[in-house]
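Course assignment 3, question 2. Fill in each field.
Student: A.L.
Task: Predict the tertiary structure for the chain below.
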Amino acid sequence: MMKLTVIIPTYNAACNLQPLLESVAAQMLVDLEIIVIDSSSTDGTLEIAKSFNAKTITIPKEEFGHGSTRNLAAKEATGDVIVFLTQDIELVANDSIEKLVEPFKDSNISATYGRQLPHDNASIFASHLRKFNYPNKSYVRELKDRELFGIKTAFLSNSFAAYRKRDLEAIGYFNQNLIFGEDTCAAAKMLLNNKKIAYVANACVKHSHNYSISQDFKRYFDMGVFHKREDWLLNKFGKPTGEGIRYIKSEIKYILAQNKSYLIPEFILRSCFKFLGYKLGLMHKLLPNSLCKKMSMNSTWWFRAKE
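Answer field:
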């Protein structure tokens, strides 16, 4: 039986961590290690983690990085498989993690990720994004699928994902200096190593964000920065051909199905700002750093960004 390590990066997570750790403890798994890596919370997060006998690691807030922080915890993990969660998810069943790791019975599968359902209070835009990105049918991706799916072949989310530790070590863990997308980069490298990535639709969590239009802009700006700096991804896998048009058609259909046609103008405005944010992100090296910080969702990253 493989041993599992659950890793949860936290920052001021007291309001979410108690129920999350209760649900982790309720999972139908025997050999389970929990590591909470905390960015110097001030609200009792560490005390909650310790009450569940979790191993705790504390780092300075300013040193948090999506890749580097997870790497620090992953190197301390004793599990054969590492499960990454974020502090704002809700496990929907007591076998969510068990189902997430089931595909590892296939030795060619290096990573898995589960289905993210919208929170009960999710906006129509947040709900559609989850439904679009996380369908109700499982699948396995391998390198040859890039011909059909482009960069989407390497799609994966560390909000609810699992990795075979030896395969994560084989790619040198996560990229350290990314504005985000450490999960996509890891998946891409594993695929290039002729490994497979599994999407597990019956392993479910609730996870969504009700972003404002300005937050959507910032998110897509960061995505543009990511794609520009990690241009090997698009070079190796190709662009998600037709994905943008498919998303637009799907969201309009979803809005109309909810009898909320009055939201179409907001949808158009959101789409324009996403497009603008992404294009500016691609051009970020031509922009002053001070402006990039203001346009970025991950503004602290710009203080330590390396060319």
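Instructor remarks: Residues 264-282 form the longest helix (19 residues). The chain has two domains: 4-126+133-206, 213-303.
Grade: pending
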